[in-house]
Amino acid sequence: MTPVIHVTIRRDAHTITPVAVFLHEVAILQTIFGQESIQNKDGKLLDLKSLTEADIAGEVALAENEFERLAAKYGANEDGLLVEQVYGKQASGNLEAVIDRLTEALAKKVSKASSATAATAGDGKTGRGGRAAGATAATAGDDGAAPQV
Question: Which of 18, 45, 58, 92 lies in the 20 to 30 Å Cα band around 138?
């Protein structure tokens, strides 16, 4: 299972669309809408390095061929397939490498944050944290496919 995160896309001054996407989709969204238009759920510029457990919407299984799913979902512009513009040709394996790195980095970050929270939980000074139960089911469709933009 691969984590999906809460993201908002600021399409214009009056249109903000909340979505849940895989970490590796953020770069494609930034290519389409501009880096400044991809924000966290609090409306701040999305920075993958500063994600917290609260940013995680749940976990969904990746498609058997994630490259093809992204090509179908985001399509192309005058410069070609958007997934190729961001990650290169499918045969290069760049997309798979990025998926692995991002997933591992987020797992380490959340694990480290959870450990720190658990270490201070006994002092009565920390609040409750974590995802709501059922967050995974709320982000996945009946077929387990990733949410669509």
Answer: 45
Mapped to the 3 state alphabet, what secondary structure does the chain carry?
CEEEEEEEEEEECCEEEEEEEEHHHHHHHHHHHCHHHEECCCCCECCHHHCCHHHEEEEECCCCCHHHHHHHHHCEECCEEHHHHHHCCHHHCHHHHHHHHHHHHHHHHHHHHHHHHHHHHHHCCCCCCCCCCCHHHHHCCCCCCCCCC
pTM, whole model, 2 decimals?
Answer: 0.75
* pLDDT score recorded for residue 128: 42
Q: Which of 42, 89, 45 is nearest to 67 (CA)?
A: 89
